[in-house]
Amino acid sequence: MTSLWLGERSPTRPHIMYAVLETGGKQYRVSTGEKLEVELLPVEAGQPFVFERVLLLSDQGKVTIGTPVVAGAKVLVDVVEHKRGVKKVIWKMRRRKGYHKKQGHRQELSVVQVREITT
């Protein structure tokens, strides 16, 4: 089975529109209808949110790369819910000194569903 790279043409799979957006210091490749978890957004659950920091846009095989962002491109999402991520354990220890410290962290996340990508 062969793998398809980003933007590669396939006779059985038509071109899908996708965008690369940046939020929370991370980059995500999204297309319409996808659900993803991003860092907490300042919006209530059930409300729409617009990502304006779109770094790359692919529409019908035509790729537009921003410098640093694509002008006029936006990704409209619906905030499905807010939740907390899995617990990460931080364990610090100094050998032979009797010092150890255990600390935990749970990241606040928003689950969003992509409604549309506009250019």
In short, what is this structure?
With 119 residues, the chain is mainly β.
N-C termini distance:
34 Å
Counting helices, strands and paired strands, the structural category is mainly beta
SSE ordering: EEEEEEEEEE
What low-confidence regions span 5 or more consecutive residues with pLDDT below 50? none
Proportion of residues in extended strands: over 45%
Tell me about the biggest sheet? 4 strands, antiparallel
Tell me what the structure shows.
The mean pLDDT is about 90. This protein has one domain (about 20-119). The chain is mainly beta and about 120 residues long. About 0% of the residues lie in helices and about 55% in strands. It has strands at about 20-25, 25-30, 35-40, 50, 55-60, 60-65, 75-85, 90-95, 100-105, 110-119. The strands form three sheets. Strands 2-1-5-6 form a four-stranded antiparallel β-sheet, with no helix packed on it. The protein is elongated.
